Amino acid sequence: MYPRRRPGTRRGVHQARQPRRPCRHRRRLPRQVRPLRTRHRGLRRGRGSARGHPPPAPPELRGNAFHVHRFAADAEQRRHDSPIGFGVFQTPPDETRDAVQAALSTGYRHIDTAAAYGNEREVGEAIATSGVDRSEVFLETKIWISDYGYDETLHAFDKSARKLGVDQIDLLILHQALPSEFDKTLDAYRALEKLLADGKVRAIGVSNFMVEHLTRLLDTATVVPSVNQIEVHPYFQQREVQAFGAQHGIVSQAWSPIGGITFYRDGEHTSTLQDPVIGEIATAHGKAPAQVMLRWHLQQGRSAIPKSTKPARIAENFDVFDFELTGEQLAAIDALDTGKRGGPEPEAITLESFGRDIPEA
Questions:
Q1: What pTM value is reported for the model?
Q2: Second label for 12, Cα 20 to 30 Å away, from 31, 163, 322, 330?
Q3: Residue 310 contacts by C-beta under 8 Å, 6 or more apart in sequence?
Q4: Annotated catalytic sites, by residue?
């Protein structure tokens, strides 16, 4: 736990700074980490729990702030500070344990799952048997729309926590906006704020929220979402959503960051992995196209959640800290945006079409 002043106290203008007693049990926050200052009127910064040792992993938290850093290329440093998370979307439960353990062995310390993925239990088992201390793993999961509503969302936390085998979840987010019943979305977020205040989660956020959803949420929320996990890859960049998030201190977290949705689902896109612009940049750096895309995310300040079940690919996706894209190369990737979404349209999300029961633990 980091040292804090007592509430309501401050150091006087002429009061000398007192030297801090060193404590080997405390980890220093990286210099890049700063408290989130809310910019939306009427909002206050959330008060996160400081219990236990914050994970040395990816983005750090202060209150409800989720920060992406710039990173040294040093291998040991990137183990502790990487904004690259590991996702398990569509990973079958029987493959999830091995995939998560391979990721943790590689150096990932941010694991992203969801109640709707059906593999939270296996994620928890993989972490528990990995040999990596729980305090070093940043665990993120999501509440599905079927569990929206204040009491329902509080219970959904209990279901996820039991499956994951933890008492506290590092980052809990709403999986989708529910536009046709947005009051349920607001009630669900209010439950997240309660969980944050009670120390049951360390940060809260949202996923797949568009500008209009974020605007309505911020009108009533008392805590700014720390992240908005959205589809972002070279062919679909959602710049307006990212810009709105940046304006309000919300980190954009990319799902399908290497455009997996462009090649594992039928659609109008060709594969990003076969794109000639990305391929040329990859050749210039002696890297794979996937590594170039992940580096593009990092240099533009996003958190990214790639997924794979193959150990070699898992390791490759983490090896993105020993090169840097030029301004021209970043601009060339930016120019690939088609504006075509790979996932479902946010306005099409309804309980009738996408609702499903989330089993008890």
A1: 0.80
A2: 31
A3: none
A4: 117
